[in-house]
């Protein structure tokens, strides 16, 4: 007896995986389906402390908002999208809805990734995808290598080399964020 199987598109496969693996982050980067398990406590605490710093800096009323886990449509390939750990977006970002829960890149001021088991995606394909999307700033707390990287001002779809920050240092988020936020590298790495 022959069994007919329907071939899924990449987007359909991503949808099925997202339903089958609650709590996992499913993304399509450069035509490649990626699945990341739920983050650990230090990862979550790093984001919490970052959000508190953004609030203390006075983001409310600045024309920007911070939001966790919202989809960023990527112009790299037709099905590409990412779900950054944290984004600072224009407050009217919902007007830039593209599809599903993904929004156009022009409303993103900063995207943040705290590395987990998928650290190579955060340091490779996402750098390329975010630059090609024209995201003004990309902050990576690279817990595997013990440093924070800040990519800014992409030109022709490429970020110049990142600013690197080591333990014991502080960094200031770029002006594209809309408020002045100073952060401890140790807090970003350790939570």
Q: Brief overview, please?
A:
The protein has 191 residues and is an alpha+beta fold.
How is this structure best described in words?
This protein is of the alpha+beta class. It has 5 helices and 14 strands. It has helices at residues 10-20, 41-56, 119-123, 125-132, 185-190; strands at 25-29, 32-36, 64-68, 71-73, 81-82, 86-90, 97-99, 102-103, 108-114, 137-142, 147-152, 163-166, 170-172, 182-184. The strands form 4 sheets. Strands 3-6-9-10-11-12 form a 6-stranded mixed sheet. A 4-stranded mixed sheet has the order 5-4-8-7, with no helix packed on it. Strand 10 (137-142) and strand 11 (147-152) form a beta hairpin. The radius of gyration is 17 Å and the shape is globular. The protein starts with 9 loop residues before the first helix and ends with a helix. 36% of the residues are buried. The mean pLDDT is 93.
The largest pleated sheet is described as: 6 strands, mixed
Percent in helix:
10-25%
Elements, N to C (H/E): HEEHEEEEEEEHHEEEEEH
> What sort of overall outline do the alpha carbons produce when their principal axes are compared?
globular
Report the structural category: alpha+beta
Low-confidence stretches: none
Please name the defining characteristics of this protein.
191 residues, alpha+beta, 31% strand
Layout of strands and helices, then pairs:
Layout lengths: L9 H11 L4 E5 L2 E5 L4 H16 L7 E5 L2 E3 L7 E2 L3 E5 L6 E3 L2 E2 L4 E7 L4 H5 L1 H8 L4 E6 L4 E6 L10 E4 L3 E3 L9 E3 H6 L1
Parallel strand pairs: 4-8, 9-10
Antiparallel strand pairs: 1-2, 3-6, 4-5, 6-9, 7-8, 10-11, 11-12, 13-14
């Amino acid at each position: 007896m022959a069994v007919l199987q329907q071939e899924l598109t990449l987007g359909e496969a991503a949808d099925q995986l997202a339903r089958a693996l609650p709590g996992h982050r499913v993304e399509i980067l450069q035509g490649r389906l990626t699945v990341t398990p739920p983050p650990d406590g230090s990862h979550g605490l790093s984001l919490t402390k970052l959000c508190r710093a953004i609030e203390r800096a006075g983001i409310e009323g600045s024309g920007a908002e911070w939001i966790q886990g919202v989809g960023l449509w990527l112009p790299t390939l037709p099905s590409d999208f990412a779900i950054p750990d944290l984004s600072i977006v224009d407050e009217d970002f919902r007007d830039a809805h593209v599809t599903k829960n993904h929004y156009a890149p022009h409303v993103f001021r900063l995207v943040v990734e705290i590395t987990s088991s998928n650290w190579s995606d955060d340091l490779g394909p996402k750098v390329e995808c975010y630059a090609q999307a024209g995201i003004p700033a990309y902050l990576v707390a690279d817990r595997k290598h013990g440093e924070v990287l800040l990519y800014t001002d992409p030109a022709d779809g490429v970020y110049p080399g990142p600013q690197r920050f080591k333990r014991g240092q502080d960094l200031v988020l770029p002006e594209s964020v809309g408020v002045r936020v100073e952060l401890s590298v140790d807090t970003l790495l350790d939570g």
